[in-house]
Amino acid sequence: MVINDQTTYLNYAPAADRNKQPIWQVLQAYLPSNQSVLEVASGSGQHALYFTQQNPQLRWQCTELSDARDALQINLNELSVSKFPPVKTLDVLNDYFVSEIKALASFDCLYTSNSLHIMSWDGCLAFMSLASQVLPEGGVCAIYGPFLYDDQPVQSNIDFSAWLKERNPESGVRDIKEVEKGFREEGFEFLADHAMPANNRLLIFKKSSN
């Protein structure tokens, strides 16, 4: 439990506090009022809480793995000024949890932050498949985090990817071409690529017509 800005969070993430404002400055253009958002890997809920404070009309569904879900639910219960729906357990590689998410009302946006480089590549592909299944035509998928670019090599991201792979060979910073290809195969167009602080990006994909 960490105190920050006079707010108490379980599983507090300093990076989420640093990047929430820059992300919102860009993301808000893709989230008009009354949008319904599914967040994959909500962590401590810091982004969900901050973004819905900026736009209280957003309907934000948080998800987490089972071992982090309870702490996230406590944060939302104690720190939110508005009502969040109950946190849903989600492992994108688990068909049971995916089917529970699909059974919810459709979403306008799928959002995730700093997750694709933690997932296995199979997990990333499953995330893309989930996006295709829960978003309508015109729905957007917004992904924040580091990525690798052949024409713009960033040594810190290359080093970070090597460090991740030492901990777990299935993790690693993802190549932007592979991410774009995976989304294209799921019926998405690559709408925008926004540069963010600390060599991160905010990628926006839009679901095309079938």
UniProtKB/TrEMBL annotation:
Write down a Pfam family by its short name: DUF938
User: What superkingdom heads the lineage?
Assistant: Bacteria
InterPro entries assigned to the protein according to its UniProt record, in alphabetical order: DUF938 (IPR010342), SAM-dependent_MTases_sf (IPR029063)
From the Swiss-Prot or TrEMBL record, give the protein name.
DUF938 domain-containing protein
Question: What organism is the protein native to?
Answer: Litoribrevibacter euphylliae
